[in-house]
Every structure is written in structure tokens, then in C-alpha cells.
Amino acid sequence: MCPSPISTGTILIADDNLANLELLSGLLEVEGYQVHCVLDGRQALETLRTNSIDLALLDVMMPEADGFAVCREIKSTPETRFIPVVLVTALTDSADRIRGIECGADDFLSKPINREELLARVRSLLRLKQFTDDLECAETVLFSLALSIEAKDPYTEGHCDRLGKYSVALAERLGLPTEMQVALRRAGTVHDIGKVAVPDHILLKPGPLDAEEWKIMKQHPLIGERICSPLKSFRHVLPIIRHHHEKLDGSGYPDGLKGKEIPLTAQIMQTVDVYDALTTARPYRKALSPKEAFAILNVEVKKGWWDGELVNHLESLAGASTLTDGK
To answer: Which of 134, 162, 182 is the last residue of a domain?
Structure first.
């Protein structure tokens, strides 16, 4: 379920000084915000684990864990990393502010607290949090749609999850940057989302498709790209969606790209996609062993369809059980 727009918001205040807690909570509660107050860093982290928090105001000097440590933990944890963090401090040394920035702090408030400044910063950061929540909601809808397509065919169960796992493992082997690994993990789920526009009698046909059916099927990468294009966070995912059915010799679709015209991330996805298809049971054949699958892939490398280096790396990963574990 998508989050409702934040008209107030839930704020965590962590400060070992009761007078400061009462001051901050009083200023915020009168504006309609829900407030959780804690006295140290350990309680702050526990509150974050057990409550839905939209913004954290952290005193820098606290027992158990100081504001820097709590901020670092918030920003390094996937479930909380998008929560805006404001460090509240009487420290004026620029080195302390630099340390806060390095820990991931989104903003700073200096003591003594100015009411107008506090409220302005809170409102601004809660708007930012709402934008982030809306983005996450849109991504969740797309992932749910993609998985519903996968669920139509019992023979593709787990396919999206495996493609995300396989492609990230291959990207790590190649030393691709983190943003490309994230794109591949996302694309593992949504690469075939365009099949939502393919009729079931084509999508689930047990035998070969005829020419007209293939014409319809070949549109799904373009449709998938259009569905996902409004999300700016998917800018590295879109080329994978569009081009994961291209072949190095130009015989793929939808654009007939050749060689290095095909983005490397799309080549990675197409390679693991073919491998997973070969090693998964189908109505017309049993699942092939990894050895059998790579024998076929290497024949297709010689035809000029796939990159032999990618296939070799994938085979090495499979031999180390990186791919087959948990399948």
C-alpha cells in the first residue's frame, strides 16, 4: 500500500538532556507532528527498528552511541537509509560538521534552537521524505506487476529472482560499479514487464510461435521501456529492458543492434536469461544440467550471438556454485 501524503509526520528526537527533549517535542507537537523521545543512541536505534519514522533529530553528544554513530547506522541500513537525519549540536568546529556530513547527515541545527529555523528545516526534509516514499511506492507497483506476469507460468517461478542474483554475481565478477549492479538487480525483476501487453494465448503457448505471434512478442521490450521510463531512478534499467534480446550479430530485437552497440548490462542480462531458460524445466523438455547448458551457449557464441567472455565468466561462477545454490 502506498504511503499517504505526509501532512504532519513522525519525528524521533534523541537527546540525553530532558530540558532539550521537552523544548523540541513541545515545539513540534504543537504543529501536529507525532514525536518519539529517547535519551540515548541505543534507544534511538531501537525506536527506528520498531516504529515508522519520517525524520530523526539527533543530539551529537549522547551516551551509549553518539549522534554521529546513530546517523551512520541509519544511513548504512537499507530499511532506514532514506530517513532524513538532522544533527543537533552546540559544537561550532567545522571539523565536527564535516564529520557529520561524512556520516550521512542531511542537515544541522545549532543550539540554542531557533523555532522558525527548526520548523522550516523539518518541513523541508519531510517533503523530501515524501518524494522518496512516492518513488519507492512506484517501484513497488512495477515490481508487483512484473511478478504477476511471472506467476502466470508455473515454469518461470523464481525466474526474476534468479536473474537478479545471476546478473549481479556476473557484474561483481566484472568489477562493474554499484549503480550498475543495482540496475541489474532491478532489471532482473522488470526486464519482461512489457509482456503485460502480450495476450496469454501467445505468452503461454507451449509450442513455437508463428510469424504474427512473434511480431507481437517482439514488442514487449519497447512496451516495458515505456512503462518504466517515467521513473528517473530506472535510467540505468531502461537500456537493459529494451536491449536484453539483442544479439551480437545483429539478429536480435527490437533494434537489431550489433556488437558493442548493445549495452554491457543488457548483454549480461541476456546471457543469464538464456542460461536460466536452459537450466529450467519446460513443458516440452526437462531442465538441462549446467554442463549441457554451457555446451549450447558455447555453440551459440560461435554463431556470433553471445559474448564468449561473459559466458566463460558465468560458467566459472556456476562451477563455484555461486549460481546453482538455492535454485
So the answer is: 134
